[in-house]
Design goal:
Blueprint: E1 7-10, E2 13-16, H1 27-31, E3 34-36, E4 39-44, E5 47-51, H2 53-67, H3 75-89, E6 94-102, E7 116-123, H4 131-136, E8 138-146, H5 163-175, E9 180-184, E10 190-193, E11 197-202, E12 205-208, H6 219-230, E13 235-237, H7 243-247, E14 250-255, E15 259-266, E16 269-270, H8 278-292, E17 302-304
Parallel strand pairs: 8-9, 8-15, 12-13
Antiparallel strand pairs: 1-2, 1-7, 3-6, 4-5, 4-6, 5-17, 6-7, 9-10, 11-12, 11-14, 14-15, 15-16
Bound molecules: pyridoxal-5'-phosphate.
Length: about 300
């Protein structure tokens, strides 16, 4: 079944899903000249609630700036559109996808003569790596693909064309029987998964690669850091070599799609004893407590929607 919903916002209007169309000469289709976000609305006792929506739209505007594709809306306006589209579709939980892209005019590589088009979709969506994965973890490989260097592309932005890098990492991992691949950056240090940031726990200390290791500054990454510090763990943003992956007591991924998912093996070597570890579980418990189990939203991460 293709992903879909009843309504979608496109260029200023909420319209029926099937009417949201573009011409095949759309610039973004040819050259990846688009920017996007992936946001969740969780089902809570008080209805759907958008998780850290403002931060996602701030990052969308940042990606727009880097890609030189002006955003048609401000952060506040994007938030309102997201709320309106979840409401229009009457979704109790949702994946929200805004996309701003260069439209149809010419095929010159510099697309700035093309109009800017934008959509925001909300669709029903379950867990990306599966429910089982949240408890038992996933098996991953170190990718043969390097993460893109920051003097070549913009790892800190979510620009459509850059996701060829993520596709290479994910397709290779899947073909090799792994759930995900971890890319090494151009300097030889651990970077991130195709759509997740990575955390490594060693002797009770939590390590995660810094922004300079060609990572996207994940919003779930930031949430995990805040939770871990609040729980009293030491968190170090530090460039890490590949062997840290093999020496780790625990590893977990963070991402809007993956949420907080343990990694149980890397390159067929078990991480720790091959089971979810106590630090991962402690961070997960706080995270899922807030987004799923009505624990106090102490950081103000949720924006409730009245359906
Ligand atoms: C390459 C990449 N890294 C990391 C992440 C995780 O970021 P976030 O937690 O903001 O979803 C994503 C997903 O957006 C991603 O595409």
């Amino acid at each position: 079944m293709p992903m879909r919903a009843n309504y979608i916002w496109m260029n200023g209007k909420i319209i029926p899903w099937d009417e949201a169309k573009v011409h095949v000469f759309t610039h973004a289709l040819h050259y990846g000249s688009s920017v996007f976000e992936g946001i969740r609305a969780y089902e809570t006792a008080d209805g759907p609630a958008i998780f850290r929506g403002r931060e996602h739209f701030e990052r969308l505007l940042f990606s727009c700036k880097i890609a030189r594709i002006p955003s048609p809306l401000t952060v506040d306006e994007w938030m309102q559109v997201a709320i309106d589209v979840v409401k229009a579709n009457q979704l109790r939980s949702a994946y929200i996808r805004p996309l701003v892209f260069r439209g149809y005019e010419t095929l010159g590589v510099d697309g700035r003569k093309c109009p800017v088009d934008a959509i925001l979709a909300s669709v029903p969506w379950g867990r990306y790596l599966g429910n089982e994965a949240i408890e038992n973890g996933v098996d991953v490989q170190v990718s043969t693909w390097r993460r893109m260097a920051s003097n070549m592309l913009s790892p800190m932005a979510k620009i459509g064309g850059q996701y060829v890098s993520s596709q290479n990492i994910a397709m290779e991992a899947h073909d090799n029987g792994f759930t995900e691949g971890i890319a090494i950056d151009i300097n030889g240090y651990v970077s991130e998964g195709s759509g997740e940031n990575i955390f490594i726990i060693h002797k009770g200390v939590i390590y995660t690669p810094p922004l300079a290791s060609s990572i996207l500054g994940g919003i779930t990454r930031d949430s995990a850091i805040k939770i871990a510090l609040d729980l009293g763990y030491e968190v170090k943003e530090m460039a890490m070599t590949r062997d840290m992956l093999y020496l780790a007591d625990e590893i977990f991924f963070t991402g809007t799609a993956a949420e907080i998912t343990p990694v149980r093996s890397v390159d067929r070597l078990p991480v720790g004893d091959g089971k979810r570890g106590p630090v991962t579980k402690a961070v997960q418990d706080v995270f899922f407590g807030i987004v799923e189990d009505n624990a106090p939203d102490k950081w103000g991460w949720l924006t409730p929607i009245q359906l």
